[in-house]
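so the lab meeting is tmrw and i was supposed to have these ready like two days ago... anyway. pasting both below. for each one the top line is the aa sequence and the line under it is the structure tokens. i havent really looked at them closely yet so no promises
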Amino acid sequence: MVSYGGVVNIVTLVIYFIYCCLSFYCAVRHGLGRSTPWICLIVLSLCRLTQVSIDLAATELYPNDAPNTALESGVAILTELALTPLFMATSSLLNTTGRPKGRRMQWLLILLHIPLIVSLILIVAGGIDPDSDIGPTFAATEATKAGVALYCACFVILIWATAVISARLYLANSTEVQILTTVVISMPFFLVDVVYMMCFAFESFWGTQKFNIISGSVTIQLCMQVIMEYIIVGLYLFLGMGLPDKAARLREQVAEMDSDEIASGFLWKMYECLSAVVALTVMPALLFAHWMLGKLLRS
């Protein structure tokens, strides 16, 4: 008989397998230059698939030894660090906006990845710390607390960036309005997810274990983390399926160009191709002739 937590894990396994396939499709659909948010969602989906697979193995195959095993330490690490690709997907989506964002905000959203990577390292270090296995449940070490606190700081910056960019909505085109609307809608669900992680990391202050990732309440984790991420990733993928693909963006660019600009661009491309052909064929011949002439003169 599968336990309550096992049922949640099986449902999560199915949903994130679908999400992973859709993320791959969105990454291919939008091309390499616009695929960063979808690559982050692929990483998130793979983390969640690995996490629930390990959790199922730990709880269903070894139900009496689930707490404080190497398997559950891996589950805890993956549960926490999967917020990193979710943060990166959100900041990358905001970075796809043009005029509402501005140059300074673009750099801020790019530099936001640095503390996110630092938090990921801290969470992994805290998860493999032997102190995390002390007691009957998985414990948040000081490194884990520092990593989750960095998540909280990054979330505050992300909310501020979203508010600033949304205030310039009058500069956005229809595609950018869709992106900003989706990010704004996802923020309340994102907040609940971050609050859950904060409660887990600092629950020792009020002596409860309800928010513990391994042995806490499955219902609380389901409502505050699992379903929240279902909604956020679903919103992002729905957005990705609705945004213009690479071919549509090229058609729009061509439609905005006049005939003289298209002709000059075509001629410039032909010139580049011919220059490449000349460089590949004539230059080796000239180098060989120079070498032969030098040999003849020396002899």
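ok protien two:
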Amino acid sequence: MKWMILVTGILGLILFFSFQPSKPVVSLKRLPVVFVHGYLGSERSLETMIQRFEQNGWGEKIAICEVDEDSTLHWTRFNAPQGDELQLVQVVFKDASNSIEQQAKWLDEVIKQVVKDTSQSDVYVIGHSMGGLASTAAVLYEQAPIAKLVTLGSPIEGLEYEQLMRHYPNSRNFQQSKGARDLQYGSLALQKLASEANKLTIPVFSGAGNIGDGTDQVVTIESAYGLQKFVPSIQLRTFSVGHSELHENNEVDRAVYEFLDEKGASS
């Protein structure tokens, strides 16, 4: 009788643990990736880059966050990946011509929510053009939990707005915006960023475009590489593409992925 009771007890324990719901496995090395568009950008700006990450099996889009002018966040969430893919989050600023500091504040709020939703401590961020400036400012001014930062064609040292208008005619309508003021050479916003940049201790990847004249049409290589003066751990890479093509290029995709994820080089 005692033998039967013992066997029954063991079988009961086995069945109990077999039917317990499994907890999601969280990989500490594969953090969520937040994509931030540039000046006057929209959802379309980085959408195709995210799609290529998905097609390559590198990640899966889990959310889009639209940020209103009044700082309200509107989330569209998708199912989290079942495997070990990177979780991709797209940020869209409705006021894409606002200041670097304001966009940094908005981005910090988005990142805090992503961290909460994914049960992670940090995120990776990819910022194109002004998005890279806002991302840098989010680390420096807001202490946003960013573990690695990618800047693509980001004018760390500024740009000429006249040059921007020549290649992006719509920017003529926003010459008086806060963003236009901040982007230009010698602006107070960029001076402040430079004065704080030596506090940036996270790994950085800075990509620059070069159409053959040392620029990507609007941003010089020197300006795109501006963080190298301050950041101890930085990778620099030049691609033979124009400004917008920096987020529409397979070579850029691969370089960014390999920087962000340790498994990228072997996949």
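from a quick look at the 2nd one: The chain has nine helices and eight strands. The longest helix spans residues 100-118. will dig more after coffe
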